[in-house]
Amino acid sequence: MKTKPVIGVMMFLLAPLEQDEFLQDLEYEVVVFTPWSAKWSERKVNGLLLRDGSWEETVSPFPGAVYNRCYTGDGKYARLVAKLIGEKNVFNHITRFDKWDVYRFLAQTELKRYLPLTWVYRQELLPVLLERHRILVLKPAVGHYGQNVFRLEKKAAGKYHIYNGYAWPLLANANEAEILSFLAEITGRKSFLLQQFIPFAEVNRRLFELRLYVQKDGLGKWTVSAAVGRVAASGFWVANFAAKVCRADAILAEAGFSAKLAEIKAAGIKTAAVLEAQLGSLGEISVDFGIGADGRIWIVEVNGLPVKSCLSEVEDMELEKRVYLQPFRYAAFLLQKKSAKPPLYKALRER
Predict the structure, then answer these.
(1) Does the predicted TM-score (pTM) go above 0.85?
(2) What are the start-end ranges of the H helices in the chain?
(3) Which domains occur in the chain, in start order?
(4) pLDDT at 351
């Protein structure tokens, strides 16, 4: 029996992949391995191989294309893979994005018009910016799941409110010293950003954001595999605590912004291309967009290893399957490129 080509998935945990039923029709086998189960000097991996619908422990030659799912900001494990199989045959070199880097990279392009004003947090800068803007958002430069995101407001008579995700203040009527002390406990020595607060459009008195899954397809081209809307829970000013996840076109139609979707998709694809040029080979990102009450489009956040579990809430099996499968289709494209024979004229010139 002829052995199928193998696509590798590198993760920190050696475990079967979620939604593996979507992989059953692939013309390739899939092996999951970790940086510690790889036998780098022998060019082999100890891993779990998906074969005929079940996972089995195996030792196999190093796969020819690797989908990196290790959540890191330095790319060191992707570089190890690249030494064995080539830089272009492993994708998602960087998976944990620094929001300040992302802001700087995008601000150098025409995407700048979609970016809220952003600054690196410093204690001495906060009172100045709050005096000027009155409301700001504080968020970690490297973080996920909406943790440690706060809204800061300057009220009358030098008093400040701090909110986490909810509409009621976590700290109310604090003076400058109190607010700085409170934030010192939160930020510590970690890098945080201050960002212009944008009041987003609402449906049924609940704000919403859009998440685009931007991935490379089976031809190696960036495409929007899915666009979903996340509607915030009642009383929340962030959509991380989503009460509803639905198709983006549906929520935009309800809000009266259907015409914005094409521009949002184009901005998402451009974002992926810009970041790949700066960070090394990528295969998928997610881009979160908000729409201001005035209809202006804003890029809220970009993530390098997008969470896909929320897609099941959309209740669209084809959409969910497409997002899960797209990285494997791109990996298959890379394998095909590696195995393709050179054109005849090139072969003749190399003799």
Answers:
(1) yes
(2) 76-85, 99-107, 126-133, 176-187, 248-255, 261-279, 317-339, 344-349
(3) 6-94 (no CATH), 99-113+200-336 (3.30.470.20), 117-196 (3.30.1490)
(4) 35
